[in-house]
Design goal:
By secondary structure, this protein is mainly alpha-helical. Helices cover 82% and strands 0% of the residues. It has one domain.
Length: 194
Amino acid sequence: MDAFLLSFAVIFVAELGDKSQLMAMTFATRYKFWTVVAAITVATAIVHLFSVALGNVIGLALPIGPINIAAGLAFVFFGLWTLRGDKLSEDEESMASRSNRPAFFAVAIAFFLAELGDKTMLATVTLATTEGWFGTWIGSTLGMVAADVLAIGVGVLLGKALPEKVIKFGAAVLFFGFGAVLIYSGVTYSGVTS
């Protein structure tokens, strides 16, 4: 349950202001809401299952102290990435706006490809190095879907008047906080501090 809650919260935050949210809003203007949500869920579940497997292998192979330090540094990097922001590339925008495939497959394929190497995938790998794989997988998948559903709903209600800078800054601060806790935990566990 701890892995689920932590993964849900971290991935929900990681998804705020991410390009996947922009894709979700774009797809929601073209296809039915539930089709978009179902496709996002399937694509995310597949990518995050792979991410959790990779993170679990790394977690079993390496000692906890260095893993926590590396994970903390990764979260600091994710915070910086969040501050930089994400935009859809021309290919991603084209995929989201002009797909002629059936809606479910168009959305699922676009999300799957967009998530490969994305910060939410990397954050899931990082979490799975120290947390239980099943809770991390379910929590990260549902956290991302919840953030995308929120983006679709808010996008529909508010259009483009979203306070993007506030969202980016808040998400980055949370990443920096997670990073600091993990680095401290790793240094303390390694016996570097007394």
